[in-house]
Amino acid sequence: MAEVRSPVERPLSPHLMIYRPMLTMMSSILHRITGAALYLGTLLLVAWLVAAATSPAWFDLVNWAFGTWAGQVVLIGYTWALFQHMAGGIRHFIWDFGRGFGPVAREVLTQASFVFSGALTAAVWAAAYFLR
């Protein structure tokens, strides 16, 4: 008589809740989120440029919207997202050369990307405030 084979016991993939969140993992997720946010922020930039090309009334309206506290929060967030995404890209560029894969180097590069993006965002907005 033919032998009946039972299905092969295969290990199940661990659920995401099993993994301990690491800074590099959070940075990778944030890199994707900032990339998506840059699409939306670029639409705001296009709206500003179209308003500048259309008429002074539209340009004043868009400038007013960007001058409100909510507009300022969005613009500061867009600036930070731009610099954070750039820092993540630089980190990946370093990894493309085979550098920075050690446990300490990975953490240092990731922490440096957060410091870099925060410092550049603060510098840009401080310069914009003082040059205004």
From TrEMBL:
Localization, UniProt: Membrane
Listed InterPro entries: SQR/QFR_C/D, Succ_DH_cyt_bsu_CS, Succ_DH_cytb556, SuccDH_FuR_B_TM-su
Cofactor binding notes: The heme is bound between the two transmembrane subunits.
Cofactor(s) listed in the protein's UniProt record: heme
Keyword Signal among UniProt keywords: no
Record GO biological process: tricarboxylic acid cycle
Superkingdom, taxonomy of origin: Bacteria
Keywords, ordered alphabetically: Heme, Iron, Membrane, Metal-binding, Transmembrane, Transmembrane helix
Topology class, membrane: Multi-pass membrane protein
Pfam families xrefs: Sdh_cyt
GO molecular function: electron transfer activity; metal ion binding
GO cellular component: membrane
Main location: membrane
Entry's transmembrane regions: 62-83, 108-131
Binding site for heme: 85
Entry function: Membrane-anchoring subunit of succinate dehydrogenase (SDH).
Similarity comment text for this entry: Belongs to the cytochrome b560 family.
Subunit structure: Part of an enzyme complex containing four subunits: a flavoprotein, an iron-sulfur protein, plus two membrane-anchoring proteins, SdhC and SdhD. The complex can form homotrimers.
Protein name: Succinate dehydrogenase cytochrome b556 subunit
Organism for this UniProt entry: Blastochloris tepida
Taxonomic path: Bacteria, Pseudomonadati, Pseudomonadota, Alphaproteobacteria, Hyphomicrobiales
